[in-house]
Amino acid sequence: MLDNFLKYINTELSVQKDDKILLTVSGGIDSMVMSDLFFRAGYKTGIAHCNFGLRGKDSDLDEELVRKMALSKEIPFFCVKFKTKEFAARKRISIQMAARELRYEWFEKIRQENKYDYIAVAHNLNDNIETLLINLVRGTGIAGLTGMNPSENRIIRPLLFAKRETIDDYCKRNKIAYREDITNSETKYVRNKIRHLVIPVFKEINPSAEKNLNETSSRLRKTHEIVSAYIENIKKEVFDISDDNIIADIKLLHQYITNETILFELFRPFGLTGSNINDLINIISGESGKQLFTQTHRIIKHRGTIIITESISHTDTRYTINSIADFKTIPFVISARIESIKSGFSISGDPCTAFIDTNMVSYPITIRSWQPGDFFYPLGMINKKKLSDYLTDRKLSRPEKEKTMVLEIAGKIAWVIGNRIDNRFRISGTTKEALIIETKG
To answer: Phi, psi at residue 117, to the nearest 5°?
Structure first.
């Protein structure tokens, strides 16, 4: 395996023998084997370990194992402990996404501070296949089907050539100590479902399924290079950089309005996903002022142009709800239901529960971070109030203000979530049904 490892580094990666490599080591079999291969190959290395605090004592035992290995090899050891659950809750993202964001930001910080040339992560061939299938199921462009890049932005993946079976065999023959993450055998996560339930079926159909999928990923990567060159030429024609904005000419975009693939590839760098490509088409074809928020950018039509700007802050969040069932997809919504107004019906005083007259409800409903300039009519008031003033009057801290979300119907704020509903959407004497939304406190 060492020969194949060195061959892969020489042919697929831009690593030189005198480069310093920061090894990211969790304590699991993949990263421990990767470390051993780098040691045997004689590279200058350091070890970085993240303790996410998600598995109690097991997390600490992982850290202890990696620390001892670094000590035995007399190489630099860097370690950090994250409050991962708190970070995920604050950012309103999954634990997996939180852990990814935390670790890669920290790895790059350590790399720069200690002058390492590359960050090595231990993704293997099977990880690459799983990523391809996950992207395929979720919906993606050609880039999502290319799998993982062997090298990008100072991150290298020197084990992408190796199957798990090969890694297991090397580990046993060389008696490498590692720790097993018990969650790897659970199937509640998407990746584990692919790993334990889907891939085995593929191998029943074709024993060479893993090999074929990996080769397909490699071919698509080369195809993507061709497509990317074509798209880059279109970008030069369509986009113009002005100050901090990117401006696209509507007339030039219109020639691609029927080609979703080209539009997707043009706007993918701005956070566009397959699920909102139709929203983009509607903006291009619609009236001035229409806008779309992605996770990273705002795309707005202004007269004969599309203006693309980065989101006001990385905490900006937006969800689009097209039916009452969609509320289930919002991580902080506990329940949403329609109830008839009958005798004995009562309105809770809980600010985390909204009671909205269904006569005022129309879809799509938007849940988003509040923005400067937002206003609403607080329950019981006939005059509008700037949301910024309302939050200040509530004496909320800056972090609490930044986390404040609003529920918007037909361009009007119906509810400052966790605070107060808008007077225009209240339950009145003529209300027959109520939309009741309950959120986490």
So the answer is: -85, -35
